[in-house]
Write a structure and sequence with these properties.
Layout: E1 2-3, E2 6-8, E3 24-34, E4 39-44, E5 57-60, E6 65-75, E7 78-83, H1 89-92, E8 99-103, E9 114-116, H2 117-120, E10 124-127, E11 132-141, E12 146-151, E13 157-161, E14 167-171, E15 176-179
Parallel strand pairs: 1-3, 10-15
Antiparallel strand pairs: 2-9, 3-4, 3-8, 4-7, 5-6, 5-8, 6-7, 10-11, 11-12, 12-13, 14-15
């Protein structure tokens, strides 16, 4: 299961090819119960927090226990969530440090040129000269811009910054990403 993060060629590129696409995407991590009503603090891990609204169904933990959101409100950097299934801090105690998910098919459509993290992971990376550099293995969020970690056929890592001058064409159907190698990017 992968985070529900979007990215774009000129923004954040983060993301697995359509084959092997996950069934569920991470949208948050429940931290601990808060207050007397059974609310739970949630770290939001989605670029679409508006989907976490009253009436929405999400799934908790590896067993994908369905939970129904009754109400939400922001508390500092976290979202306080009240679920129909919990009525006091004791009943919500089992939520501590659990990941929460939504089905992949429920993800919002993205504008052209933006991709979800899971869509990019595993893509074959090809240089402007047609050389196969390897496959995208991970994506690091460095703050300034993301960095693609490409695993080469020789089992070395190639780090590619996600900037407009490096990232070229992305073809999810072919499972390929074309890149422009700037001096110093190859080991």
């Amino acid at each position: 299961m992968t985070p529900d993060r979007k990215s774009g060629k000129s923004e954040r590129l983060t993301g697995s090819p359509n084959t092997g696409e996950p069934e569920y995407l991470v949208v948050g991590k429940l931290r601990k119960p808060h207050g007397l009503r059974g609310e739970v603090l949630m770290e939001v891990l989605t670029d679409f927090p508006e989907r976490l609204k009253p009436g929405a169904e999400i799934f908790m933990g590896k067993d994908l226990q369905p939970l129904h959101i009754r109400s939400t409100r922001w508390h500092k950097q976290l979202l306080l969530v009240l679920f129909d299934e919990f009525h006091d801090p004791e009943s919500a105690a089992g939520c501590r440090n659990q990941m929460v998910y939504v089905p992949t098919e429920d993800r919002p459509a993205l504008p052209k040129g933006e991709y979800y993290q899971h869509e990019l992971l595993g893509l074959q990376v090809i240089s402007q000269d047609g050389d196969e550099l390897g496959r995208i293995e991970k994506i690091l969020d460095t703050g300034a811009n993301d960095v693609l970690i490409v695993r080469s056929p020789q089992d070395t890592e190639i780090l590619l910054p996600v900037i407009e001058s490096v990232i070229g064409e992305i073809d999810l159907q072919k499972g390929e990403m074309r890149v422009n190698l700037l001096p110093g990017l190859l080991p």
